[in-house]
Amino acid sequence: MPNWQVSFYLFLFWLFTSLVPRRLHPFFTTVGTHLVFPLVKKTREVVKENLRVIGQGGYSEKKVSKLAKRRFQNYSHKLLDYMCMHRLDVSNRWKLVEREMGEEHLVRALKREKGVICVTPHLGNWELGGYVLASKGYPVNILTLKEGSRSLRKYEEKVRRQFGINAIYIDPSQEPKLAIVEIARKLRENQIVALIADRMVGDRWVEVEFFGRPTKFPVGPALLAMETGASVIPVFVVLEKRMKYWGILEKPILFANPIQGKGESLRQGIKKIVESFEGMISRYPDQWYNFFPYWDQGE
User: Fold this and answer.
1) Residues 244-275: pLDDT tens digits?
2) In the list 1, 140, 239, 290, which could disulfide-bond 134, CB 3.0-4.6 Å?
3) Do 112 and 231 meet the contact criterion of CB atoms below 8 Å apart?
4) What is the pTM of this model?
5) Which sign does the torsion angle of CA 201, 148, 82, 40 carry?
6) Rg of the chain over CA atoms, in angstroms?
7) Is the separation of the CB atoms in 202 and 172 below 8 Å?
């Protein structure tokens, strides 16, 4: 999409969220989904096929269609909420975040003074988790790809600066040596590095079972944890029934020094991360925002 179009849509979303109270957003996202859903046949069928895999034969076609439509609606709601992030702080986060669970796991992990790697899939409102942690005073670094749209990148950088979040950019077409050095330094300073870990980036991966299918997952988080001793914590921010989010931090995953060999230690650690992702995606299949043939990636 050309940069001017992205700028135009960003402005429309910003204007909408500035003028329309959030309590009315579900009405507009419902209407918009009913209008758009029949028109995006290719994407709609891709989403349905991904849902069939998640259901592993347990979803009827009626349920698959219902979940697919809800996924489009939830994603629209997520985009609207993203345009409100600059108005969020520690005093008013309750307007978006209704419940926070598992912060004690993060506190305990940071006491080890080896840093924490927070991993999440493209589930719910993943950006919101980093902003909430940063607003509470935690030192947060986000590992991210550089956004192609200059307008969107400027908005993201503005919001991250507001919360004191440091962005570490990677380029999948290049060897990410500088990024790795910076990440390792932040972890040794006992900071938090947050990243999304359910899509392939680069060519280093481990294959594990994910919803009953062999699936490639990046090894980056596991390698960093093994090299630095950092704890890995699965983090999720999911939308609940009252249109507010729950923030969930699960128990840390520790990558011990390899006893059975580095490759096997990597695979076992990544398997634990993937099992955590699988459990949460099973609970919220209509909030997993992968709009492409997921099990074809990397083939």
Assistant:
1) 999 999 999 988 665 555 777 788 889 999 99
2) 140
3) yes
4) 0.92
5) negative
6) 19
7) yes
